[in-house]
Design goal:
23% of the residues lie in helices and 30% in strands. It contains six helices and eleven strands. The protein is globular.
């Protein structure tokens, strides 16, 4: 089992949210998110791991995210999902038990393929702070699928992800080639600056050595 993959759309100053939701509406970018997190070889399934706020930010009609194992991490032990709400596959009070819980889950006999950290700010911060463990069963983020929102600046963001490149120092994270991104996701991803709804962005992949 490979490490964890963090997937995020963020502005140049790492803005990711506003008022409990995404600051932009980018249908093609969202399709990319859905496809990347869903596609798995025959007989396999991926997991999406998210914080409680992110779970609540997904439109009810899209939640739980279909054809994926949905894991919600809430450090609040009292947290209860709304009775009317569709349930995630797992509700955990910390990341370690989330990771362990997924392994034990049987989803119609499917094997687990990839584990995606899909936000938000707290869970990104927590997972990026993990150092490479000697025990490969422990969680560690070794790949970031970053959609960099280039313009406009979306200066009214109120939620930010950590600057993972700055945080770990130069050379720890390296940007993979576009071919490597295509190979990793397993489908054709448009290269270069994308333009949608007046927003310019780029699909990037970053990997970590140490
Ligand atoms: N990563 C990227 N690249 N873009 C994002 O928008 C993004 N969003 C989150 C985490 N990582 C991301 C968290 N927020 C849905 C809504 C919000 C959300 C994540 C997912 C959602 O409704 N997803 C549906 C898409 C349905 C559609 O096609 O519009 C899904 O099935 O994945």
């Amino acid at each position: 089992m490979s490490g964890l993959t963090l997937i995020v759309a963020a502005t140049r100053n790492n803005g990711i949210g506003r008022n409990g939701g995404l600051p932009w509406r980018l249908p093609q970018e969202m399709k990319y998110f859905a496809r990347v997190t869903t596609e798995a070889p025959e007989g396999h399934i991926n997991a999406t791991i998210m914080g409680r706020n992110t779970w609540e930010s997904i439109p009810p009609k899209f939640r739980p995210l279909r054809n994926r194992i949905n894991v919600v991490v809430s450090h609040n032990k009292e947290y209860q999902l709304a009775a009317t709400d569709a349930a995630p596959s797992l509700l955990c009070t910390d990341l370690a038990s989330a990771i362990e819980g997924i392994t034990k889950l049987d989803v119609n006999g499917k094997s687990l393929y990839r584990r995606f950290i899909i936000g938000g700010a707290s869970l990104y911060r927590e997972t990026l702070a993990l150092t490479r463990p000697s025990d490969s069963s422990k969680p560690f983020v070794d790949c970031v699928l970053l959609t960099r929102i280039l313009s406009p600046a979306f200066e009214d963001c109120d939620t930010f992800m950590p600057d993972f490149m700055a945080r770990d120092g130069a050379g720890v994270w390296t940007r993979a080639s576009h071919e490597a991104l295509r190979g990793w996701v397993g489908f054709d991803v448009p290269a270069g600056v994308q333009s949608e709804q007046g927003v310019e962005y780029e699909f990037q992949m970053w990997t970590r050595q140490g």
